[in-house]
Amino acid sequence: MNTAAIVALVATIALGFATGALYLMRARRKRLKDLHLIAALAASGLVLAAVIAAPPPSLPGPAGFIPIALVGIATAAGWGAWKLARGSKSRGELVLFAHIVLGIAGFFVFLAWAKSVSAG
């Protein structure tokens, strides 16, 4: 379960990187953005399932709810960035920055959590 979640998170980050690069080049690819959202939703579900199905950690590490919260908030921030910005480009970009930071943090915290569960 952890491997599937990690692969889905890596795919989500790769698609997000491609979407972000196109955004910076002022090119919009709606299908790529939609694919990124679908991958993020799948990754969120897999992270949730991995944490719920996991045995207690054998090493000290982050609590299981932390990667769930980070990935969930990152997904919500990415999906609603322009709605949350209410038409302000600078606010929208700030929300997208938060989306990026939370998503990457969620990935690394999930890796740390998965290591604490699988070690032993």
TrEMBL record:
This is Uncharacterized protein. The chain crosses the membrane at residues 6-25, 37-56, 62-82, 94-114. It comes from the Bacteria. Keywords: Membrane, Transmembrane, Transmembrane helix.
